[in-house]
Amino acid sequence: MFYYLSVLNEEWGPFRLFQYVSFRAGGAAATAFLLSVLLGPLTVRWLKHFRATAPARLEGLVPQELIDRAKDKTPSMGGILIIASIVVATLLWAVPTNHLLPTFLGTTVSLSALGFLDDFAKVAYRRRDGIDSHTKLMFQFTIAIAAVMSLYAAPETGSYIWELMVPLVKAPVLTGVLAMPILVFVLAVFVVVGASNAVNLTDGKDGLAIGSTIFCTLTYAVFAYICGHKVFAEYLLVPFIPGSSEVVVFAAAIVGSGIGFLWWNCHPASMFMGDTGSLALGGAIGLIAVLVRQELLLLLVGGVFVMEAASVLIQVASFKLFGRRVFLCTPIHHHFERLPKPWAETQIVVRFWILAGIFALMGLATLKLR
Question: Which residues contact 117 (CB under 8 A, 6 or more apart)?
Fold first, then answer.
């Protein structure tokens, strides 16, 4: 919306700033941050009024007595604040006619609605696992398929979206079995769903998930900006994607909203994002990775999320196959607080943030290591 202020440039020169995506991305981040910070107390009071506190949950066949019940009293479903801030900031600062925005906003809101239903089942019916996992996964795949198909169908993105980019390789991988479009499509869908669930698993400590999300989103915001700039894209050997620079505004809104939410989610947390926020944020990151053709790089950039998800998979597989647990507790951030010399919650969160920052820098380094 604010983009149209640039038409006043002829009369008032400073309004030309609204033409630049970097300025509007900063505006979106600031707007989302302020919305999250200022509306945080109201959101907490609203959640407490409706007793929106979900029972704590661990993954990976962990005995119930190990569950940290102290967090059961903290309001969940704070993702409502995050998603609302993202949507408002994006609509205000992005170019409304951009063809990619409906896909990204629609996917984010849809996954948030699914997460809300899951959280509501936990809050209203005290179901520790929320709605049926198979049902939730089915809807996640449906939303992801619709989102990826939208990118594939768009004329601006359809020409390159079938290509598979591999980190550290200059040209797209177009030979052999990897050139089969259906495999590239399936990979894209699994990236969106996998990222959505990985962020969800990471949301177990005050500030852990949202802090890691900020680092990951910043990295893909850089990729989206470069892919939307023809000169930079050609120089750094990444696909030039017309209109992808507006996704930077969307990503900046995620970062700003995340920082604002961290104000209330840092230890001791006033509220948690719940599935309402985690499913949507993970899906948004996965979809940005698909857009800029860096799905495989998400394994590195989202290294913290990969660690969390992998620990659960390893734990479940080991228990079912051998009847033994590899970790004391999963997701893996719970393992460190069960050690003989346990890590404090703030130690776990800050150390995982450090890892998230390192993974993000390593991901950005691949732009030159080609």
Answer: 130, 131
Task: Give me the chain's average pLDDT, please.
Answer: 88
User: Is 370 part of any domain?
Assistant: no
Q: Are 28 and 249 in contact (CB under 8 A)?
A: yes
* Pair 18, 24: CB distance under 8 Å: yes
User: In the numeric block, which tokens belong to residue 226?
Assistant: 């470069």
**19 by DSSP, 3-state: which?**
helix
pTM of the model: 0.93
Omega before residue 331 within 30° of 0, cis: yes
Q: Three-state secondary structure along 314-361? A: HHHHHHHHHCCCCCCCECHHHHHCCCCCCCCHHHHHHHHHHHHHHHHH
| Cα gap 325→317, rounded to integer Å | 9
Question: Number of folded domains in the chain?
Answer: 1
Say which residue the tokens 């990951």 belong to.
Answer: 216
Among the residue ranges 26-35, 111-120, 175-184, the one predicted with the least confidence is 175-184
Burial bucket for residue 328 (CB in 10 Å: 0-12, 13-18, 19+) = middle
Q: Is residue 235 part of a domain?
A: yes
- Give 226-271 as a DSSP string: HHTSHHHHHHHT----TTTHHHHHHHHHHHHHHHHHHHHHSSSPS-
Q: Is residue 62 part of a domain?
A: yes
Query: What CA–CA distance (Å, rounded) separates 272 from 43?
Result: 11
Residue type at 20?
A: Y
Please provide the size of the chain in residues. Answer: 370
Residue environment code for 222-242, b if the CB has 16+ CB neighbours within 10 A, otherwise e: bbbbbbbbeeebeeeebbebb
pLDDT of residue 56: 58
d(CA 191, CA 193) in angstroms, rounded, equals 6
Residue 175: band (very low, low, confident or very high) from pLDDT cuts 50, 70, 90:
very low
Q: Please state, in angstroms and as integers, the Cα–Cα distance from residue 32 to each residue in 56, 93, 251, 254, 348, following that order.
A: 28, 11, 11, 8, 27
Closest CA to 115 of 70, 76, 59, 64: 76
All residues at 6 or more sequence positions from 108 whose CB lies less than 8 Å from its CB, including other chains? 83, 86, 87, 280, 281, 283, 284
In this structure, are residues 302 and 105 in contact, taking their beta carbons and an 8 Å threshold? no
169 in a domain, yes or no? Answer: yes
